[in-house]
């Protein structure tokens, strides 16, 4: 006789629909777990029952926050603000079920590697940031609020952009909590530009890495996968910055460089700009750039991240939003990359030494 194992759904009366480990037998709980009005039908990443998790004290929780922001993009009428919704809707096709004891989940299987991803953590989808006023001020305030919540729960976190400038505001907030931030930037571009006409007062998705260094927000930074030609003013030389271009990126070059920068008290933050992927793999970005790294190299680098302690958070940015019914198979690949990043985040051991 199989035992009840995974929570599959919650009906309108608040009763749980429960299955055995193989989704063959089903049960319904006699009592409701909480007032049913607390449970909504909102879509969540991997259809994970985030409302239930929000009230629990699961050890290893990943908070996911959508950041529908494109004001830091130089691309006119960019649709990167609707990327969080696209990725969330797509992830619903591969649901993850929570176990009854809240200690593990069904995970999802990557058929390529036969790995079970995300089976060791709870996923708390906090939804998308709401902006009363679509401005940098509004973004900063929202980021501050979300960090208060994350800190209270001691969770790890993933922000889904939005344009790449959101990384600057996230790290500025993180700097209040952590001194030694090692910043890892997956991107086709350096995002270190300087624009004499704007006097660089405005932070945008093409210059924020320069700001991170000049304002000492991060201690060291590593850029992976950059390529193409740049003029003076579009790159930035700094002893704290190490760069592995696309053609030189491998699991060995990445590991060596990471070992050089990683210190015992480092906290790793990873920003993943999806335009690092070669356009033949994923082209739904505003500034595609040919000559990207092999997808398996990117996956290997992501896997290495999970072996390091104190990977505290990630962001995933610059994808274009699209209707799920209309999107190409390329988005399947991007969801796969995102799921592996989340998995690395869940596996990293955190030693909590906040300020
Ligand atoms: Mn970027």
How would you summarize the topology of this molecule?
Blueprint: E1 6-10, E2 16-19, E3 26-28, H1 50-54, E4 61-67, H2 83-91, E5 98-99, E6 108-110, E7 115-117, E8 122-128, H3 136-153, E9 156-161, H4 166-175, E10 181-186, H5 208-214, E11 220-226, E12 241-245, H6 251-261, E13 267-273, H7 295-305, E14 311-317, H8 330-347
Parallel strand pairs: 4-8, 4-9, 9-14, 10-11, 10-13, 11-12, 13-14
Antiparallel strand pairs: 1-2, 1-5, 2-3, 6-7
The protein binds manganese (II) ion.
Give the key terms.
355 residues, alpha/beta, Arginase, Chain A, eight-stranded parallel beta sheet, four-stranded antiparallel beta sheet, 8 helices, 25% helix, 20% strand, binds manganese (II) ion
Describe this structure in words.
The protein is an alpha/beta fold. The chain folds into two domains: 1-34, no CATH class; 42-347, Ureohydrolase domain (Arginase, Chain A, 3-Layer(aba) Sandwich), CATH 3.40.800.10. The protein contains eight helices and 14 strands. It has helices at 50-54, 83-91, 136-153, 166-175, 208-214, 251-261, 295-305, 330-347; strands at 6-10, 16-19, 26-28, 61-67, 98-99, 108-110, 115-117, 122-128, 156-161, 181-186, 220-226, 241-245, 267-273, 311-317. Strands 8-4-9-14-13-10-11-12 form an eight-stranded parallel sheet, sandwiched between helices. The mean pLDDT is 91. Manganese (II) ion binds at residues 164, 187, 189, 191, 205, 273, 318. The site of manganese (II) ion (MN) has 7 residues, from loops.
């Amino acid at each position: 006789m199989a035992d009840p194992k995974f929570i599959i759904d919650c009906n309108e009366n608040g009763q749980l629909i429960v299955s055995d480990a193989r989704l063959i037998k089903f049960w319904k709980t006699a009592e409701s777990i909480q007032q049913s009005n607390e449970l909504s039908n909102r879509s969540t990443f991997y259809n994970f029952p985030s409302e239930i998790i929000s009230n629990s004290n699961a050890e290893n929780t990943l908070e996911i926050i959508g950041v529908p922001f494109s004001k830091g993009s130089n691309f006119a009428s960019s649709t990167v603000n609707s990327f969080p919704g696209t990725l969330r809707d797509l992830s619903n096709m591969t649901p993850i079920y929570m176990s009854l004891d809240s200690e593990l989940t069904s995970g999802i299987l990557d058929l390529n590697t036969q790995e079970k991803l995300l089976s060791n953590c709870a996923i708390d989808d906090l939804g998308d940031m709401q902006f009363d006023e679509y401005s940098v001020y509004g973004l900063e305030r929202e980021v501050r609020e979300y960090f208060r919540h994350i800190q209270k729960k001691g969770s790890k976190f993933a922000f889904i952009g939005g344009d790449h400038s959101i990384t600057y505001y996230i790290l500025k907030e993180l700097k209040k909590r952590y001194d030694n931030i090692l910043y890892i930037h997956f991107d086709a571009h350096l995002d270190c530009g300087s624009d004499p006409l704007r006097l660089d007062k405005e932070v945008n998705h093409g210059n924020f890495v320069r700001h991170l260094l000049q304002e000492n927000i991060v201690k060291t930074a590593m850029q992976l996968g950059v390529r193409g030609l740049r003029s003076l003013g579009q790159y930035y030389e700094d002893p704290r910055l190490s760069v592995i271009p696309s053609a030189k990126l491998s699991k060995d070059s990445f590991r060596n460089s990471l070992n050089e920068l990683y210190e015992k008290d480092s906290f790793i933050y990873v920003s993943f700009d999806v335009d690092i992927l070669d356009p033949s793999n994923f082209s739904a970005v505003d500034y595609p750039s040919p000559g990207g790294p092999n997808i398996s190299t990117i996956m290997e680098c992501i896997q290495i991240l999970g072996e390091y302690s104190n990977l505290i958070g990630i962001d995933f940015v610059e994808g274009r939003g699209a209707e799920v019914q209309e999107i190409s198979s390329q988005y399947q690949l991007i969801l796969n990359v995102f799921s592996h990043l989340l998995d690395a985040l869940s596996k990293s051991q955190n030693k909590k030494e906040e300020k």
